[in-house]
Amino acid sequence: MKILKYFMIVVLLFVLSNISVYSSSSHNHAEWGPSTFGQSENGQWEIENETFTSTTGSGWHRLYKNALYNEDYTVEVDIQWLETGDSEAYPKYGIYAVYYDAGNFVTAFIDNDHGLATYGEVDGVPQDWENGSLPDDYNPSDWNSLKVEKTGHQFRFYLNDEFIIERTFAVDKGQVGLVTEDTAAIFQNIYVNDEKVNHGWGPAWNGDTHGSWEISENLLSTTVGETWDWHRIFQNRMLDTHYSVEADIRLLERGDVSNYNKHGLYAVYQDDDNFVSVWLDKNYNALATYGVVNGEVAGWSNVTLPHDFNHNEFNTLRVEKSGHNFKFFLNGELMKERGFAVDSGQIGLVSEDTAVEFKNIHVVKDTTTVDASLIDLRVNGKTIEGFDSDVFEYTVTLPFDFPRVPSINVQTGSHYTISDTDELPGTSEIQVTSLDGEITNTYKVHFELDAAVEVTDADFRLDRTTFTPGLQINGLLDIHKSNGDIVNPFEVKQFKNPVFEPVLADPSIIKGEDGYYYAYGTEDDWGDGEGLRPVPIVRSLDLINWEFIGHAFEEKPNWKSEGFLWAPDIVHFNDKYYLYYSVSIWHDPSPAIGVAIADHPAGPFEDQGMLFDSNEIGVNNSIDPQLFVDDDGTPYLFWGSWHGIWGIELSEDGLDYVGEKFQIAGTTFEAPYIVKRDGYYYFFGSMDSCCDGANSRYRVGVARSESLKGPYLDKDGNDIIGNGEQGTIILRGSGDTFVGPGHNALITDEVGQDWIVYHAIDKNDPLLPPGATRRPLMIDPLIWEDGWPTVKDQQPSEGWLDAPVTSPNTIKFQTSHPDILTFDREGNIFISEDIGNVQEIDVWAEVTGLYGEKVESEVTTLVLERQNSVIATPINYGNYVGVSDVEVNTVAENGTLTIALNNELENIEEIRFTKEQINSLVDRNVTIHLSKSDIELKIPAVNFEKEEALTITIALIEKNQDVLPSSDLASSSIYLMTLQQGDATISTFTEKVTLSFAITEMTDSNEDLLVYYWNETEAEWKEVGGNYADGNVIASTDHFSIFAVFHPSVFETEDEDDSKDDSDSDNDQDEDKDKDKDDSKNDRDNEESKVDDSKKEKTIDGDATDSDSGKDENTTNHSEGVEGEELPDTATSIYNWLFVGISFILLGYLLIIIKRKSKGLYMN
Questions:
Q1: Where is the segment annotated Disordered (predicted)?
Q2: Taking CA 144 as the corner, what is the angle to CA 140 and CA 146, rounded to the nearest 5 degrees?
């Protein structure tokens, strides 16, 4: 049986005001489009004045809101009919009240000739058209309001607030949509539950010309053709002062006016007298910038593009606005910088006589303006009491590319305020120099925040506050300002290793001045058909999302006759980017180290040739270089592999070595990495096999020294210069997933957290297609404890971790039940299957500033959404079945959990529940509904004991007259039923169990059929009772036993025959045989008539009793049939001392029963 699917809609909306956020926001037209559930055709739609307009034509025009609505809601829209098409179709226009797929939907159409038409399909079955009359004053050319109220499966349809018709459709959830057929109509003021859901793009607030735009996954402008025209569309929000906007743009087609073929962005638009724009001009093959300020034209300024620039591919156009300064970028390259005195406005997309596709439209908001202060500026150890500009000058180096360099304003004493900053600069450098050139000091400082991040008037909102166990909700979390403007879709900052695949071995990393992180790796063939990649470069803004951008060299260095480029090391030195690299092959007799220089971390690097080779320097296997610049500015190169780790001083330009080499570690290590922290030099080195696939044993050891040249001691005081010493191991293979971690570098994020960057091997995917070891890029936080670094558990992380802080503020989502509700880095929300009896979960946002300030939003409570009826999917464990925790926990209080054992599960007898599942079922008083093809049971969970697992057995018994008398006359299958908890068998129930038997042997009077149970004590069938309905007999019982359905005549026939024999013997009559039969039949008919009239209780031997006779003193809980009759008792009568003698007879009979059981009474 197919399991019911669960949906949860938790669309997280954050209203965060007066906070500093730096993140990218996608503003594509994602609100409306084709159905997300499979219906792709949506016709043509034009955006006009925040409305949706369908075009005239045969066929359908459909447009859906990209959100899932569930349970109860109201959808409403204003519609104006324009014209009807010329086909013979059925012209109509209206809304999808709910659309799940092509076989499950409900629609409401306005038909000008036939009324308000309603239609739907449920599970692919058409539900017929039903029309309601239009109001007498209805005018299709006016704006008319169409509304549908959905309450469960009930739909009420209104037109202009007048109730028209009500219908029932069994469609639970879906999207809402707009629809026309062979009709042009305008839609506006679209609401769901009083929330306006119109799209976020339209004409400018202060403009009216915008041309024609078609909605699809992207925004698409149409070609104008013979006449010149504009196509402009603007985002409906105001941006101010500092931000950047970018979009990917692709030219589709040029119009017929040859002088005007361009397309681009409005970086800011107030009105036609105040705006700034940037264009890609196909006609002149240029990037063109243009603006108007207070009605005065600021003029065109163009940059010619390369002759091979391809306008027909997606190109990224970006503008950074910092006050009145505008920087224009194309595909990441700064093309132009200009000044325009336009403070604020909208951003927009624009084309002129071109058809263009826009996608990936982003707005990046800079942080709010804050002041920062610099405390105790000192020169030569003395605090400067007043900054005398006649004596000193200063320069400020910031870690980011900011629009303005801060200035130092003198305060009292030694307090200097850094002002005019629009960002949070973090760790910066201030260099103070005396004007006579004799004193120059450089200070690394943290700017202090004058105020923490503010979210005082913000709250944490959700569209719905219910959730379903085991459900994942896809989509980014939106952060909203208090006025409703979207700030950005913010990635939840978590990550999972690896961060880049398939390979980036022996990584080196640096943060560029452009704000990107760049990582470099060993030359490898990635198996993608591109061949060897000499020093591949990847980059990232957040250290967790990386993109390959190219290679370090346009032409691979060839100063060595053969060799691969291994283990590059990147460093910013002498205002340039230096790349030291190894050239070697396996078993190379004289590997070498070279150096290259570039102005930008992305290259291209200009090779400077060989620094030295193994023969020249006198060290075998001279590979794995690292440049370290000491505090006094002296550069040193460290290198080595299995023949000791060595160091040597380099020249000031870093292109030659000077002095003598020195050794710091023994032959155990390769891949040295030196870093200085708190007065110590820390050595990281890798050891053992790096590249043996899943068998790699690479690992990282650490030692430290107070001197750069050593000695380096491990945590136990051992000098690692001794051969065989390993240092203190901080990172090794986990044995489960990742093996061979090593060849590390370090990077520090914006809050001072160190991250170890390394490669490792997934033992389940250890090789690249060409056969080399697959070594993807990994990162983990480096933990400092008592002056020593380590990695958690000394192994690569495998689960989700908080990501590095790479933007001024980060937002982390917290939950009161992290074991149940979790977030991942894409903003997906996961609800655990095992939620136990949790009813509510609190969720809130925690905002962390650059220096660790934390503020929290208000708490929102999520309420568990359970269902009254859940159909479970049985889990086949071979000799028994079970169910999942999520299905158990999804059932509402007093609900029903149905488990069907059909088809291949028909012969399985046991159904098992865990202790935790029983606790959950009992707490919510759930009824377990078990069904096979010929029997069903409904068992209230209140009958079970908590803290014990449960086994329910439903065993089919063979119909065997010798084992169970009369069993061959049963009208149903015969079943043995037991309940087992721990070592105890539950024999009686506090709340009755309902049995339903399918009739397999029909009789002439099925309505007389009853359920019986086998009383082992009296060795006879006892009546339970029951009602016959639709081929089934249903009864209730307060205990389990062997059950079957019989016609009462089965037992009455036997009793009458015995009675006749006794009568013949006692009276010694010699009557005719036929007469005896007639008399017996008449007596039996009379007896049956009495039973039907009085419904008195009977024992199987046919003796009629009064209401007290035959009761079992051992049973105090009496089950009842469906009609309320009481079950017969099962023990010896306590009313007559004569039965004491009979009990001895029964005792003997019990011995016979035991023998019968041993012969196979309970057979499958």
A1: 1053-1125
A2: 120
Other Cβ atoms within 10 Å of 34 Cβ, number = 19
Q: Exposed (0-12), middle (13-18) or buried (19+): which is 240, by Cβ within 10 Å?
A: exposed
Query: CA-to-CA distance for 545 and 949, rounded, in angstroms?
Result: 46
- Closest alpha carbon to 1022 in 908, 923, 930, 1100: 1100
One-letter amino acid at 1081 equals K
With a cut of 80, say whether residue 666 has pLDDT above it: yes
What amino acid occupies position 1032? N
- The token duo for 544 is 């967790």
Q: Is the peptide bond before 536 cis (omega within 30 degrees of 0)?
A: no
Tokens of 512: 């560029």
Rounded-to-integer distance, Cα 1126 and Cα 963, Å = 28
Q: Tell me if residue 228 falls in helix, strand or coil.
A: coil
Contacts of 222 by beta carbon, 8 Å cutoff, 6+ apart: 211, 212, 213, 214, 231, 355
> Strand 183-192 and strand 24-26: pairing?
unpaired
Q: For residues 985 and 952, what is the distance between their CA atoms, to the nearest angstrom? A: 10
Q: Report pLDDT digits (tens) over 724-748.
A: 888 999 999 987 899 999 999 999 9
Q: Which two tokens stand for residue 1145?
A: 């007879």
Is the bond into 498 cis (omega within 30 degrees of 0)? yes
pTM of the predicted structure, to 2 decimals = 0.39
Specify the range with the lowest mean pLDDT, choosing from 336-350, 412-426, 1063-1077.
412-426
Distance CA 723, CA 705 (A): 18
188, 51 contact by CB (below 8 A): yes
What region does 878 belong to: left with phi over 0, alpha with psi -120 to 50, or beta? left
Structure tokens at 743: 């060849």
Judge contact between 975 and 1042, C-beta under 8 A: yes
Distance from C-alpha of 345 to C-alpha of 298, rounded to nearest angstrom:
17
Residues forming the active site: 506, 670
Q: Which residues contact 1025 (CB under 8 A, 6 or more apart)?
A: 1010, 1011, 1035, 1036, 1120, 1121, 1122, 1123, 1125, 1127
Closest by alpha carbon to 498, among 797, 783, 746, 771?
797
- 1102 conformational bin, left if phi > 0, alpha if psi -120 to 50, beta if neither: left
CA atoms of 677 and 480, how far apart (whole Å) = 41
Interatomic CA distance for residues 720 and 727, integer angstroms:
6
Handedness of CA 505, 511, 512, 514 (dihedral sign): positive
